[in-house]
């Protein structure tokens, strides 16, 4: 063999990573779930919760004493959508929740409403103000209203980092979990350990290939959200990237831990769902976890997805620096190390 | 005589429900092709996997190239090549990508493209593994075993399920490797494969070595070079054959008798006379030269292809 020929291959870690990327890219369904699905979700949720003037509250006026006059007064209000009903109809509509409040009674007016419904209170305030005004009450002062539609404070601003986090969790765990369990199932892991391949290279290659795909995944959703919904990253891009990388690592670690012993694809799917479900709900993807009981919050904050979402929101929406998100990043790092090391330790190659 | 490159003594591996390996001794010499022949479930795979260092024995001493798996795993991995039973290589990678990946694990070895050529896989270089035929997949599996230029090649059931032509191609690959001085340990339940490829054979049954030697030596152990197979109506008893000259024993499989004899010319007419004298009717009659299959039948009363 001539001395001038190049070495036949790169370092095994690089070769293994390249092979993982190729394998991954050649699975059309994976490409859909990793790239297309998060975009579709962002579009759907982005439009569903887009900014629009608050709906007018439907209210009813029962026919009878001064009904027309009351109706007219309520029509003056730009927060209300009043209609005239017979007393019987009005009660029915209220019961069915189609109107939030029914004005009845003669001179002694009655507001019928369900006090447990949040819009009933608004309706009461608005209806009362309109009717009082008609009756001659004058405002003592008039405050100006300043609508807040600043960047970083809209629902879409809250949502996009949550989707990014959720997406990182899903793709990192699925892609690693499935590829490892599949290789075990097909005895490929066994074949690998009968070569001089270092076990750590195999697992590290899973991490590295994940990182490469993650860049594309995050970039697509982030750029799309920026162009279409004007969701910008207010903090530093470097810190944002670091957060994503640490998030990806944490979930890759959890993925390896989950896949370390499972022998079937059904088994790994079930385990993934059991692990991810609580985080979808608790970790503040679609709504803030502030509504959970205080006692649960320390646990919720220690979950990797919560840490990732909190850090992403702090960097994207609030523009905070490293010091502010350091605790979250530390949690992600801890998950990476602890889950990764345990996974490696109990990993079953055959 | 050269030092054995593979040796194991009193190898044992018991699972809760079966004694997979029950006291096997083996010595394989450098440059030799050694076969473990036996039916499915005989313990061949467990034995070869212990020798490959991917399974552990309950007891017994294993030395490969004078080293042990416990102390020299990394060095040994560089110097052996393995083809496992039932490994499915990644389907979405191409032939070349697969071989290149395996090549990257080893310090030394041929260029993947050179190896593909010597295994007649160059036309499939850029085909996905999932699209290969059974024979091509198996050649690729062996290529992955050869890509580190091993001193010893371990092949577990290399041609099971292959068509005759693919089997011949694979045998040619093994022969080529041996011409370069390689040592081969293979398992098979095809006696033809064992006879064609192996210098020496150990016949394995129920986790034990029941015979050892060259194919010729083993067949000679039958002491009878010819086999007469026949079916009669009504069936005959073993005692009726005792007076046939050159008779060495008989085994019954279903309603079919197999007689081991020295000479067909002498024994067949005598047998026909006995059948006729008894008033029985001959349904079928055939003869063949004795094979390892016949030895296995003689030793165990069962056939290799029986599970």
Beta-sheet strand percentage of chain B?
A: 25-35%
N-C termini distance of chain B: 37 Å
Number of strands of chain B: 13
**Quaternary status:** heterodimer
Biggest sheet features of chain B: 6 strands, mixed
Shape assignment of chain B? elongated
Biggest β-sheet strands, sense, barrel of chain A: 4 strands, mixed
Please list the strands of the largest sheet of chain B in the order they lie side by side.
5-6-7-3-8-9
Could you explain how this protein is built, in words?
The complex is a heterodimer of chains A (350) and B (307). Chain A is mainly alpha-helical and 350 residues long. Chain A has helices at 12-25, 28-48, 67-76, 87-95, 118-134, 155-185, 188-193, 199-229, 237-259, 265-282, 297-302, 304-316, 322-346; strands spanning 57-62, 80-85, 101-104, 110-113. A four-stranded mixed sheet of chain A has the order 2-1-3-4. In chain A, helix 3 (67-76) packs across helix 5 (118-134) and helix 6 (155-185) packs parallel to helix 9 (237-259). Chain A is elongated and about 100 Å long. The mean pLDDT of chain A is 89. Chain B is α/β, with parallel strands linked by helices and 307 residues long. Chain B is built from ten helices and 13 strands. Chain B has helices at 44-51, 69-79, 95-105, 112-118, 134-146, 164-179, 191-197, 215-221, 264-277, 292-300; strands spanning 4-15, 18-29, 33-37, 59-64, 80-83, 152-156, 183-188, 200-205, 208-213, 226-233, 247-253, 256-261, 281-289. Chain B has a six-stranded mixed sheet, sandwiched between helices. Chain B is elongated and about 70 Å long. Chain B starts with a strand and ends in a 7-residue tail after the last helix. Chain A binds chain B through residues 1, 5, 8-12, 14-16, 19, 22-23, 26-27, 183, 186-188, 190-197, 350, and chain B through 52-54, 74, 77-78, 82, 84, 86-90, 92-93, 97, 100-107, 109-112, 144, 148.
């Amino acid at each position: 063999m001539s001395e001038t020929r190049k070495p036949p291959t790169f370092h095994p870690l690089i070769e293994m990573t390249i092979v993982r990327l190729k394998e991954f890219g050649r699975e059309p369904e994976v490409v859909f779930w990793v790239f297309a699905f998060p975009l579709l979700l962002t579009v759907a949720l982005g439009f569903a919760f887009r900014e629009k003037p608050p709906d007018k509250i439907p209210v009813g006026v029962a026919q009878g004493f001064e009904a027309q006059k009351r109706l007219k007064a309520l029509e003056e209000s730009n927060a209300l959508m009043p209609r005239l009903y017979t007393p019987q109809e009005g009660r029915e509509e209220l019961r069915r929740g189609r109107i939030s409040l029914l004005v009845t009674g003669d001179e002694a007016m009655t507001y019928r409403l369900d006090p447990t419904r949040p819009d009933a209170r608004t309706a009461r305030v608005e209806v009362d103000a309109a009717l009082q005004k008609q009756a001659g009450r004058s405002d003592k002062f008039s405050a100006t209203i300043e609508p807040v539609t600043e960047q970083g404070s809209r629902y879409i601003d809250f949502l996009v980092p949550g989707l990014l986090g959720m997406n990182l969790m899903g793709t990192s765990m699925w892609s690693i979990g499935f590829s490892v369990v599949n290789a075990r199932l097909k005895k490929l892991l066994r074949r690998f350990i009968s070569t001089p391949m270092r076990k750590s290279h195999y697992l590290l290659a899973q991490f590295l290939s994940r990182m490469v795909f993650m860049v594309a995944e995050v970039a697509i959703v982030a750029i799309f959200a920026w162009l279409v919904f004007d969701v910008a990253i207010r903090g530093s891009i470097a810190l944002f990237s670091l957060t994503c990388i640490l998030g990806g690592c944490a979930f890759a670690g959890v993925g390896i831990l989950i896949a370390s012993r499972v022998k079937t694809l059904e088994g790994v799917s079930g385990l993934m769902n059991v692990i991810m479900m609580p985080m979808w709900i608790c970790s503040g993807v679609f709504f803030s976890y502030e509504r959970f009981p205080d006692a649960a919050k320390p646990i919720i904050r220690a979950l990797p997805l919560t840490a990732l979402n909190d850090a992403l929101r702090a960097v994207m929406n609030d523009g905070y620096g490293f010091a502010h998100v350091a605790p979250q990043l530390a949690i992600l790092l801890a998950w990476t190390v602890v889950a990764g090391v345990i996974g490696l330790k109990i990993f079953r190659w055959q | 005589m050269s030092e054995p490159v593979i040796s194991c003594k009193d190898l044992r591996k018991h699972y809760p429900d079966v004694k997979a390996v029950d006291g096997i001794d083996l010595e394989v010499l450098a440059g030799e092709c050694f076969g473990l022949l036996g039916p499915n479930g005989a313990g061949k795979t467990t034995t070869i996997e212990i020798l490959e260092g991917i399974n552990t024995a309950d007891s017994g001493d294993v030395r490969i190239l004078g080293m042990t798996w416990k102390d020299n795993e990394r060095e040994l991995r560089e110097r052996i090549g393995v083809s496992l039973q039932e490994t499915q290589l990644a389907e979405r990678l191409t032939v070349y990508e697969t071989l290149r990946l395996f090549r990257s694990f080893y310090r030394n070895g041929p260029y993947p493209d050179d190896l593909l050529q010597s295994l007649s896989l160059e036309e499939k270089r850029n085909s996905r593994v999932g699209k290969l035929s059974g024979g091509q997949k198996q050649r690729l599996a062996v290529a992955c075993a050869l890509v580190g230029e091993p001193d010893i090649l371990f092949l577990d059931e290399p041609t099971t399920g292959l068509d005759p032509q693919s089997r011949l191609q694979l045998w040619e690959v093994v022969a080529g490797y041996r011409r370069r001085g390689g040592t081969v340990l293979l398992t098979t339940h095809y006696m033809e494969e064992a006879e064609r490829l192996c210098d020496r054979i150990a016949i394995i049954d129920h986790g034990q070595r029941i015979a050892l030697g060259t194919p010729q030596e083993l067949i000679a152990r039958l002491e009878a070079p010819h086999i007469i197979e026949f079916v009669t109506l009504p069936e005959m008893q073993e005692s009726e054959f005792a007076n046939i000259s050159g008779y060495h024993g008989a085994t019954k499989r279903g309603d079919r008798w197999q007689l081991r004899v020295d000479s067909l010319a002498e024994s067949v007419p005598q047998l026909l006379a006995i059948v006729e004298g008894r008033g029985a009717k001959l349904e079928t009659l055939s003869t063949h030269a004795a094979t390892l299959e016949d030895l296995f039948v003689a030793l165990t009363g069962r056939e290799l292809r029986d599970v």
